[in-house]
Amino acid sequence: MSELNEAVKRYTYADYYSWDDGERWELIDGIPYAMGPAPHPDHQTALGNLFALFKNFLKGKPCKVYLSPFDVRLNADERDDTVVQPDLLVVCDMTRLDYRGYKGPPELVIEILSPSSSKHDNIRKLNLYKRSGIREYWIVNPIDKTVSTLILKDGEYIMMGYIGEDTIPVHVLEGCMISLADVFADQL
């Protein structure tokens, strides 16, 4: 993840939306970050598996799951200078959904680590998601086959780690349990 050379200049969603350079960007507090190279096949396998698991669980329920690229404007009603593209997100308030993406914090955000995104996901986005009030944040490591879940409680994240054959309870979706064996199935 790299900042533009003009890091001092702050941008808004209107600026972001007008960029048509063929690159994918995220905008955090007005600072643009390039999304980096295409992810590893294990990243994409884990993402596809997670999407299928959540899609099946949510069938017939009011919440929906979305894949990146999908714009999430975390402060659209204020400064409108933060837009991220999580690998996967679950939303339950359909009034915040529009033709450009989602306005406000989703119920659940999942980021799958890549060598180019590890610091961005583990530090910058973790702090952003906590500050934005995202109730559940997962960091998936497809190389180590681990998942860290962060549950927001009293403004702070409580972290739990999962590995091997563990099953993860999804706190924001009652009755939803995700098996790591299913998440990491069919990897290289």
In short:
With 188 residues, this protein is of the alpha+beta class.
DSSP summary, beta strand count: 14
* Low-confidence runs of at least 5 consecutive residues: 1-5
Helix content: 10-25%
- Helix/strand order: HEEHEEEEEEEHEEEEEH
- The tally of helices reads 4
Report the major sheet.
Answer: 6 strands, mixed
Architecture per CATH nomenclature, i.e. the level-2 architecture: Alpha-Beta Complex
Number of individual domains? 1
Mean pLDDT: 90
Defining key terms:
188 residues; alpha+beta; tt1808, chain A; 6-stranded mixed sheet; 4-stranded mixed sheet; 14 strands; 23% helix; globular; disordered N terminus
Describe, in plain words, how this protein is organized in 3D.
The two termini are 25 Å apart. With 188 residues, this protein is of the alpha+beta class. The protein has four helices and 14 strands.
Chain-wise SSE layout:
Layout: H1 13-18, E1 25-28, E2 31-34, H2 41-58, E3 64-67, E4 72-73, E5 83-84, E6 88-91, E7 97-98, E8 101-103, E9 108-112, H3 118-132, E10 136-141, E11 146-153, E12 156-163, E13 167-169, E14 177-179, H4 180-183
Parallel strand pairs: 4-8, 9-10
Antiparallel strand pairs: 1-2, 3-6, 4-5, 6-9, 7-8, 10-11, 11-12, 13-14
